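Weekly sync notes, structure subgroup
Attendees: PM, AL, DS (notes)

Item 1: joint prediction request from the bench team. They want all two components modeled as one assembly rather than separately. Inputs as received:
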Amino acid sequence: MEGVIATAGMHGGDVRSDCWVQVEEATGQPQLHLTSRVEALYGQSIRTLLRETLAALGAADLSVTLDDSGALPYTITARIEAAVYRLRPQTGSTVLPEMNSITQYPTNRQRLRRSRLYLPGNTPKFFINAGLHRPDGVILDLEDSVPATEKDTARLLVRNALRAVNFYDAEKMVRVNALPVGLDDIRLLAPHGVHVFLLPKVESSDEVVAVDRLLTQLGVDSFLIPILESAKGVLHAWPIATASHRVVALAIGLEDYTADLGTPRTVEGRESLWARSQVINAARAAGVQPLTSVFSNIDDQAALLAWTKGERSLGFEGAGCLHPRQIALIHQAFAPTLDEIEKAKHIVDAFNAALTGGQGVVRVEGMMVDAPVVARARQLLQTVHES
Amino acid sequence: MSELIENAAGRFVPTQIHAREFIPYQGVGKFIPQGRKYAPPIRSCAHYPADGNKVAPSLVEALHRAGLADGMTISSHHHFRDGDRLMAQVFAAATELGVRDLIWQPTATFPCHAPFTTYLENGLIHHIEGSLNGPLGRFASKGKMRGVSVLRSHGGRYRALQDGDAHVDIAVIAAPAADAFGNASGVIGPSACGPLGFALADAQYADHVIVATDHLIPFPCYPWHIQGNYVDQVVVLDQIGDPARIVSGTTQVTRSPDHLLIAEYAARFVREAGIMRPEFSFQAGAGGISLAFTVFLRDMMAEAGVKARFIRGGSTRYLVEMLERGLTDYILDGQSFDLEGVRSLRDNPAHLDTSPFTSYNYHGKGNFAGLVDCVVLGATEVDVDFNANVVTHSDGVIQHGIGGWQDTLFAGCTILTVPTFRDRVPIIRERVTTLCGPGELIDVVVTERGIAINPRRVDLIDALRNTRLPLRSLAELKAEAEAICGGAPDTPPTTERVISVVTWVDGTVLDAIRQVSL
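Output from the run, pasted for the record:
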């Protein structure tokens, strides 16, 4: 319902890198009020941005109060747009930050997905330096870390972040909400350079098919990672993994899964051993990567390392991260063994030899080697070189 | 105030403040004063009690006997940090005596001193000299304080008292424990805080020295961090400090992933530059990044089997643990930040008490700062020529004291650990808002987006030739931060009125700070 006043964003003592916007129908001349922690440095620039954004949204007739806690420009415009949209849902206008060329880089099916760092989608302060910690992927999360009342504002913030923030070569992932809301999330975000959509609480292949269709309709080639986090979802791992060529990995969500089983999640994880094995088996059968859950105790580094090594030995290729300090340890746990390094060298050498020899087919130890396998071997050697 | 003159760093500074002459900064090591040092008045044993009992009946009486009068300078010291409960009693006593226009010369101020703005407003205190932090800094920056505040480093302060640049009429020294003769110890009693070195210069050079304690013990009070032979009177009060705010129970390493990344880069730099070698030395404070640096370096030292000869404190439980694990021969401690630091200073003969005289005094026959292989410091701004600011923020408001920051720049390798921007405040600037440290003394700037080595340090650039650490120029880091923040920031508007000056360690004037207009 349309009102005469609407707000968006956050302010107050602990808030950093965000702002709070209130828009209201003006009685008389519209007023603009700005308070900013960076008034001395960017006050004028923020005022200009505010006026330009309102004009572009066709909302220059509104009175606006902006309380800024050091938000970056893409956050300020996302918050203004959200507030205006809440006041006038029919407005239809958007304001996109310029697509920053540095944020545009490709991904590929086979790339390493050892670590994927969760970033709450409505908390901009976590975005800006996330890529510096070198996760294989960053997840801009619209689901569990965003309260139900903020889904609309988070969506706009994530959209702007996808265009403006440099994640330093991390694969850009977005965890949307469970369907059907997730389809709206995808519709809004798909045009803005999402490498992978993570689909939470998937229970049937129909959901994956629906998303696949929508993405095809929108003309984008994003990959998908279904997250299985219920008894039913795990049971359907195989049809889900094979529902679309866009699926590059299957992930398991153990907090929700154990809740669904009605048993607490333990560190040793006996209660989920079958589910994890099932997900690994289905993923391998479908030729996609099996990815495990997150390790919740962010203060216990030793336990994280031991747990991740255990997950690797089961067959997983990657884990979720709740804190950037988990990334290096997870990479260490998933580091290739000497045998794997030898084999990768072997593949790359054989491929190079075949190229120079003009052979069409490459065999290593009797196995056919195709381009993705070579790419993956090269990638493995690259990570060994980098660490 | 006189007209402003351009100094060797291109900053316009006054040459006369409160009728005293000041010399504009001439460059590092350029100003060589002549003449003799200042000496305090001669005192005679005949004027002190033969039995050594110097206890005065009250603080008011002690200040009265000390001859407290309008316009006098009272000094105090920050070894109680935010737990200081003495100075409020001193100024209450001064109010009772009806004096006005005092000059307060603290070694540092803390949030607990914020209420003293009342005294600046009602005329009891004319102005604060030496160090301004937080609320008092903001008060001064807004032009609400009379006079001009001359800011000095810890070493600069020792030098100023020793050279007669600064004069203290009455020094009030907070003593966790004392005897009636005035011997004072920092490691005994409910307010035990560690070393008392910040008070040494005042003990030696003030006209009158009062030791205040809430823990009087029979002679001798030992270890006597301040010797009673310097002390005129002893005052016993119910409480002079809040132990919980003097030292933390345990200092904690930051959990900020960005700060940890910077700290890790800095530690790796120290290892790869070859600074981390047997018998080396370093100094890092108790601030978030510095403490984390120490923890990363500790693990690298343990892994490589490298033992330091000494580590300069502020001591923390992390340094104490390194001493006890045999990762260093000594801790040289200027102040203790947690209870473990206090305990170790008291009990471990390899945990040594130091002062601004031994560590930082610039007009001494050398000091320890130059003997340290590397120091890790913070800053509020760094410019593309490696000049740094530690006093004001980019909005021009005074936020921090200089502390020992300037003095430690003489270490073998000076490393600043700073983010390229905080929220939306770029830290790498074209020109620092306030010049506190000349770029020629700053060797490395470590940020979350890369490490810049001062081009003067060809040796370091050579040592890091094959590194995987992200080496960048400050210009690149500045450009990246500004691209993220939405362009270069505006220059904050100021008035013409100078409210404070930053002095260099030799006493010359490095920069002037103006009243802000916002």
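Discussion: The domain at 257-493 of chain B is CATH 3.40.1080.10 (Glutaconate Coenzyme A-transferase).
Action: AL to compare against the crosslinking data before next sync.
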